Model the fold of this input.
Amino acid sequence: AFAINGDILFHTGHYKDALVQYDLSIKYTKKVYSIMDQKMLILLYLKRYAELSDFAEQVMDFYPNQVGPYFYKGYALLKQGKWDDAINDLSQANLMGGSRNELSPSVNALLAVAYFKKNDKTKSIQFHDAAIKLTGAIADAKNDVDEIWSDYKLWKTDIEKLNDDALMADSSNPFYLATKSRVAFLDNRFDAALNLITRALESGGKIYPSIIGLAGDINFANKKLEIALQYWKTAKDMGVESPVLDKKLAQKNYFSE
Done:
């Protein structure tokens, strides 16, 4: 019952309450991996990176053959600036997942970023190229890679190409539209970014913290401070834990992540 309640809360954007239900379910039994996977995804959504890396390591003890915990831990460590530790876990995820796991494109995309941060251009290009190849014709995979690289403001030309391909497959997907809006935002094309993020929100994006937070940034860029503050506060209320978000709200100004 706890897991079912958690799923309902998750799919309606009530992430903090979903975490409570999943924790109760996990306390009762650790035999259902999908519940742990959902918790890791929520922690990623809410930018709770230290908590995510710790929990992912706990999941590894129960499910050492699952790619997910290594992926999430590596993702969290990368966001914390721990390049070498991130590479260790992501390399293990890559070894376990090979080329067929659904997380493989994202794993390679993160490894490309990690090696870029370490100024290892050869390995960064190697994993960059592998990430693109592994997306194949899968629109979600293309957008997953896009979200990672746009977050780090890397490889804009590739982001745009992958995003165009994804939108051709589904022109109303809120995540794909949000990625396109982020690219426009980073290019200082604020009118276009506002149009795109509005479409993303209208297409179901209002329950996703990353889209809500981005809507705040884009509205601020368009000199709509009160609307920006509303979106930033909504992201905070949803459970996002970010010093940058707190700074935006406190100083009523935009700051880059």
Notes: The CA atoms of residues 74 and 223 lie 37 Å apart. The mean pLDDT is 95.
